[in-house]
UniProtKB/TrEMBL annotation:
Catalytic activity: D-threo-isocitrate = glyoxylate + succinate
SUPFAM superfamilies: Phosphoenolpyruvate/pyruvate domain
Gene Ontology BP term (one): carboxylic acid metabolic process
Lyase recorded as keyword: yes
GO function term, MF aspect, one: isocitrate lyase activity
Keywords: Lyase
Protein name: Isocitrate lyase
Amino acid sequence: MLLLRRVADTGEARCVFDCVTALQNDADLLRIETGKPHIAQIGGMVSKIRKVIPNAKLVYNNSPSFNRTRTSASRCVTR
């Protein structure tokens, strides 16, 4: 598995490009992470990837705790 880190301000197009490139260079599985769980966002990226690589296998973590520790911590109020 290859983990590609998102480059700031490059957006979904860069993620799709990186995934397609990795799959074309023999990656067999990709895991994509987004800032917040968002099924429509990941679905759109997967559709674009599968237009180029129809049999692409991708893993997406949509767990309620996924990637929320950072955002939740900033909203915590201490008493």
